[in-house]
Predict the 3D structure of the following.
Amino acid sequence: MSSYLPAHGQIACSLCYPGQAVEFDRTRRVNGSWRISANPLAWGNSEPEVVVLGFSKGPNQAGALATTPHDQIAYKGGRGNVGRILAHVGLLDPGPVESLARDVDRAIADRNGRFHFSSLIRCTVERHDARSDTWKGSGGSMLDSFLKSEFGYGVATRCAARYLGDLPNSVRLIVLFGLGTNLNYVNATFSLFQIARPGAWKRISDVAYTDEKIYVVHVEHFKSQGSLIPDWLGDTEKPRAVYGRLAREAVQRALERIT
């Protein structure tokens, strides 16, 4: 199976839809309380220095992505926080949140820039809420729970192997939005990378790990609620602030690595 970073735009992928004719943003697969929608996307450079990944795109009605301008989709409604987080770890110049949001706009649209943007699970992931009888793309412990399920683990393993297993030599760093409950998401993705990219993996802190070829660093999720983002950005001894400093240190280590 070939591995690569796809070009800016829609991605033709049927990896997790065996026996189905795949139509972008309309083909779905349901397993128990989980559902994935075939709408994988990529933004930015396919030979970047830094890969920035959410977990999965937020929920969209069937067909919505096909009619939304591509460069407006990624991190929609959260680009200010994306900018604040990337600036905190040294990947963007500091500035007012409005200016940082514009920097993220430009980076997402730049096919020859420093960044590649996408999600760990490139298709949209949703979980069925029995109370409301609706499918939801966010919620407590969703990241952890999907990776713990047999179906989710299979999807994640295939997706990571295809899109992260054999990266361009230009890539030094992968930034992942999300920590999970008690760092469960960090621990789960550490195991996932060991399967997708066999090698001499080691933890370098609570929020970062490396195979000495790339560094993977977890940062606060850009849609985190309440005090989580301010705490993570802060200069205190709160656990979230410590995670923020550890992330910044790991990013600096990755960028200073001698290749």
